[in-house]
Amino acid sequence: MKSTNLTKTLHIEGCNTVRFEALSEEGRIQLEGSGPIVVEVSVDGFNYKEVQHDSEFEDGICIAPCKFYIGDRVRISATSLTKAMINFNNVKIAERS
Known about the structure:
By secondary structure, the chain is mainly β. Helix content is 4%, strand content 52%. A hairpin with a 3-residue loop joins strand 2 and strand 3 (17-21). The longest helix has 4 residues, at 93-96. The protein is globular.
């Protein structure tokens, strides 16, 4: 059976922020960096609202499951980010290519 997951490396803006559009309802994110992690979500990509969570860096790494609405615009920031990857689960074929 072919995987329906999609793993993406996210572009880091200003050494502390990543943005992406949710391609599935569930996934897992891996961040490398430091400081408090702020997660915000938006429908239009301009007006963001902070989302409460309990994820934090341990030895510079945070690996956490995440839930979205498909199409959500997500912005994640911390004091510093050096690497960010996301694994979307059950992505439709058109979005995997």
